[in-house]
Amino acid sequence: xxxxxxxxxxxxxxxxxxxxxxxxxxxxxxxxxxxxxxxxxxxxxxxxxxxxxxxxxxxxxxxxxxxxxxxxxxxxxxxxxxxxxxxxxxxxxxxxxxxxxxxxxxxxxxxxxxxxxxxxxxxxxxxxxxxxxxxxxxxxxxxxxxxxxxxxxxxxxxxxxxxxxxxxxxxxxxxxxxxxxxxxxxxxxxxxxxxxxxxxxxxxxxxxxxxxxxxxxxxxxxxxxxxxxxxxxxxxxxxxxxxxxxxxxxxxxxxxxxxxxxxxxxxxxxxxxxxxxxxxxxxxxxxxxxxxxxxxxxxxxxxxxxxxxxxxxxxxxxxxxxxxxxxxxxxxxxxxxxxxxxxxxxxxxxxxxxxxxxxxxxxxxxxxxxxxxxxxxxxxxxxxxxxxxxxxxxxxxxxxxxxxxxxxxxxxxxxxxxxxxxxxxxxxxxxxxxxxxxxxxxxxxxxxxxxxxxxxxxxxxxxxxxxxxxxxxxxxxxxxxxxxxxxxxxxxxxxxxxxxxxxxxxxxxxxxxxxxxxxxxxxxxxxxxxxxxxxxxxxxxxxxxxxxxxxxxxxxxxxxxxxxxxxxxxxxxxxxxxxxxxxxxxxxxxxxxxxxxxxxxxxxxxxxxxxxxxxxxxxxxxxxxxxxxxxxxxxxxxxxxxxxxxxxxxxxxxxxxxxxxxxxxxxxxxxxxxxxxxxxxxxxxxxxxxxxxxxxxxxxxxxxxxxxxxxxxxxxxxxxxxxxxxxxxxxxxxxxxxxxxxxxxxxxxxxxxxxxxxxxxxxxxxxxxxxxxxxxxxxxxxxxxxxxxxxxxxxxxxxxxxxxxxxxxxxxxxxxxxxxxxxxxxxxxxxxxxxxxxxxxxxxxxxxxxxxxxxxxxxxxxxxxxxxxxxxxxxxxxxxxxxxxxxxxxxxxxxxxxxxxxxxxxxxxxxxxxxxxxxxxxxxxxxxxxxxxxxxxxxxxxxxxxxxxxxxxxx
Length: 955
Known about the structure:
Blueprint: H1 5-22, H2 24-31, H3 33-62, E1 104-107, H4 131-134, E2 139-144, H5 148-155, E3 166-167, E4 179-182, E5 188-192, E6 200-207, E7 210-225, H6 229-244, E8 254-257, E9 269-271, E10 301-302, H7 304-320, E11 341-342, E12 345-346, H8 348-351, H9 355-362, H10 364-377, H11 380-386, H12 391-419, H13 423-426, H14 430-452, H15 458-485, H16 491-497, H17 501-516, H18 541-565, H19 568-584, H20 586-592, H21 596-602, H22 610-625, E13 630-641, E14 650-661, E15 665-669, H23 676-683, E16 691-696, E17 699-700, H24 705-709, E18 712-715, H25 727-737, H26 742-755, H27 773-785, E19 791-795, H28 803-816, E20 821-825, H29 829-835, E21 838-843, E22 846-851, H30 853-861, E23 863-869, H31 876-887, E24 892-897, E25 900-906, H32 912-922, E26 930-934, H33 938-954
Parallel strand pairs: 1-4, 1-10, 2-7, 2-8, 3-6, 5-7, 15-20, 15-21, 18-19, 19-20
Antiparallel strand pairs: 4-5, 6-7, 8-9, 11-12, 13-14, 13-16, 16-17, 21-22, 23-25, 23-26, 24-25
Helix pairs in contact: 1-12, 1-25, 3-12, 9-15, 9-17, 10-14, 10-15, 12-14, 14-17, 14-18, 15-17, 17-18, 18-19, 19-20, 25-26, 30-33
């Protein structure tokens, strides 16, 4: 029984903690990277503010210089004198990415300057001057034209009439039926032919993030006829010259001259006063007085000529009686960029845009991706899994580490940015920032986990990760942002685009920066994003947070699925196989998986050698009886690699049946490409069998690999080690995975190090990156044996070792095979002869022979090798050949060089005593320098079997 999930998590946590402690410099540099960006932005910002303040002071003292102008894009401190004409208006230097809609406003004289009977105008139809004291003077419009009766019908409809107060709940477009006016002193009203007492108009206005109802009073509009335009002009000029030059304003709101207009022609001249527009900044003023704090005042958009023309046009259309109407709903400014200023200080962060902040936040993505792919590429993940580490502990520890790293990274970003005065961080609520950055960092980690399943190379993953950051940032800036700022684009498309994590991040940064540098249309939002803004549909923050939360969960599920099943099809196939196996049984399932090639091979089983057939029968017998004395059973195991691009299928393993008992070392021999590596890969879970199955400790490799891993040890052909860990730390980690604790753990580590000769010279406490190839090999063997695994797979364990180390390794393996099964692959016949109790030779994907070393030599050797050396060039060579023929008529000379001859003599019918006796007698008559008789070696058996297999394959 392996370690519990909690124990596995603890082991992995300790191992990762050691690795990260040794990489602390790299981690610190990564976490402190935002300091570089914030320092650059903050330093430039401080330098610009310093230069600006010096320039302002010098200008003021010089007398003729222009003072430093400080702008405030929040529109909460805008220069407006209470006696000046105009309303609240943000400077043109402020940014305006999405221009707001404003109702058109007509300019009218303030009540104290409206035309009355005061001697300037000799018209008896003007109101009495007493209305000025009461502030009830109407706004006067003068009208003339060639057709008095027609014009009189038109002017009756220029101003609308409402008998009761109106409360509008719609947007600004609903105001098109009313004529809004402004008198230049923040007094707005709406014009009518007749105003009843207390008649008001209420309509909604958005100030920052709040929508309030704004009430405006009714002002009567007085439309008066004059006989000619010349008369009007003379009287207006006279009034200006006599008393109103200092005010730069006329007492008449506007003049209409309808010329020759009639039912079929509409000609119009409009006269109005344009000498004082809103937004004119008097450069003689050194300061910016604070706006009246009584309440918010809507910014008027003075479109005098278009609105006056629209009023006359609608009156004309109404007279025509055809139901036509030209509503003048709203006006908009052009969107613009600006130089952002906050609290009288230049803020460079919004000026450089959102892109640097987005790139900085995304920088951890390739770091996470490459770390995960590194363990995948170097097979460290599968190595840990083969020693019992489950998926849940691995992903839990990895996720927690990257989440901690991400939180520290974002925390340093926010702290450094706030300390250096960046309003992007300081203006927005820190709780809101934490929620959104925390959500995005979780999404980024899950996205990296998902993308890890598609990469097997660190280099490819690194390049792809940084390319993703660069391209996604540019797409966000130049493609996604225009969509967000375009109010005509459906929000559904914006939501679909935000499914890409980079776009979600950009939307967050965009909204935070937009509210931090509050726009003219949202001038009350100078406090940045607050909790109340979560439900603001304009910002879309609630939608972005929902998308990130849903995607986070889906990415994790898909990452787990692909990591476990490798592909979508493999998952479906494995699930179907599992269902069928539970219904029909494992053996029935294996039979259904056989392909055409393997069926043809099993049809020729009778061609197998006797020992192979006998082994197959033993496997079938113990599979039925469930004999527990056998640790590993290969039951007709086969593997076929499907051909691609029109190539034929490749049969790697052909229905191999082998039984391996406890306390035995089983050697797997074979030439290159014989299929032995594929066989080991199937037994260790690297690949799935195409047909048949194998049982390890009674568990099926197709369905129970996670349980099998807890009881096996693996020494792979390549040394899968961490360069930044020591040999002792490797054994500590794998020992904990094998459920070793306290004294037992340290005792097992010391024993392993001692048996592999890794204690001398402090080798055990050196980093593996400084080990030689032989040291790494011995450490890999020690890892495979720690924790008393019941089955150990060793793939060429002695490769790269010197003779002395090899002998020590053999000694350790021999002593370790007590009460466990060791499966060994090797190309060294000497190693197989020394270590293996049973040997199986595989060639062409099939088992050719099986047995102990002595059995194979006796069964497939079948001959001895007699070597005789005589003087070269003499007759002794022919005499020796005749002598050998007399001893064994079936002897065959296989070698003859410079007097040395080798003869292969069949063992059948041959007595070794007869050979010794004949050679001793021949030495008295022949000049025999030396002679020797040798038995068949395992190497001879291997070569012979391989040649026979090649010949049978060709045939």
